[in-house]
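Subject: Sanity check before I submit

Could someone independently write out the structure tokens for this chain? I want to compare against mine line by line before I put it in a report. The sequence has 77 residues.
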Amino acid sequence: MKDIKVLGSGCANCKTTIALIEQVAQDKGVVIQVEKVQDMPAIIGYGVMSTPGVVVDGKVVHAGGVPTREKIAGWLA
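---
Independent answer below. Compare away.
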């Protein structure tokens, strides 16, 4: 199971990112646990200055803008 955190204020791009991650995981048959992190000190603690940010298994893999389906598929491989 992949532990995924989406870092952001809850904006449209953050919501789109969560939906896209869930959709790609379902398409690939990968079990994930998605957590929304909206606490700014926690987000800054990851070193993310532009949102949405994505953390997979404790490692920041993306920051700023909605990631592509291909990029997400790579994280879930």
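---
OP: Matches mine. For the report I'm noting this point. The longest strand covers residues 2-7.
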